[in-house]
Design goal:
mainly alpha; two-stranded parallel ribbon
């Protein structure tokens, strides 16, 4: 995280929020108002009171429910053969990934949803008057 500059970006943009997995606990400790990581598992789960154990499970379930759509979206790109084992030149990877992302997006747009589709126009940026 330090070498990629993400911590610096979080310092520059304090209004940015993120849900992360347990691997980013250090970042969540450093930026508690911006980064939300799953709660740590109690040391000895058997000795913990039942209410605390169920509370821990519920907090993990809620965060997992929030993150699952993103995890599925990330996994869908990796199901495409060209991205599973990219053997091409390094400079061609971004174009390949963008092309597959476009295909994934088109496929997702054609997918049936449980919601009724709306034809209302929604501004991309909020208008100020």
């Amino acid at each position: 995280m330090r070498t990629e500059g993400i911590a610096e970006q979080l310092r520059r943009h304090p209004d940015v929020r993120a849900e992360v997995d347990g691997g980013y606990r250090g970042l969540a400790n450093e930026f508690p108002d911006q980064i939300s990581a799953p709660p740590k598992k109690p040391k000895d789960l058997e000795d913990v009171p039942l209410t605390e154990r169920y509370g821990w499970r519920e907090m993990r379930r809620r965060q997992s429910s929030c993150r699952i759509c993103v995890e599925h979206a990330n996994a869908e790109h990796k199901q495409w053969r060209p991205l599973q084992r990219f053997l091409g030149r390094r400079e061609h990877y971004p174009a390949t990934h963008r092309a597959i992302a476009g295909l994934v997006s088109d496929r997702a747009a054609r997918r049936a949803t449980h919601r009724k589709a709306s034809t209302a126009l929604v501004p991309a940026t909020p208008t100020t008057r």
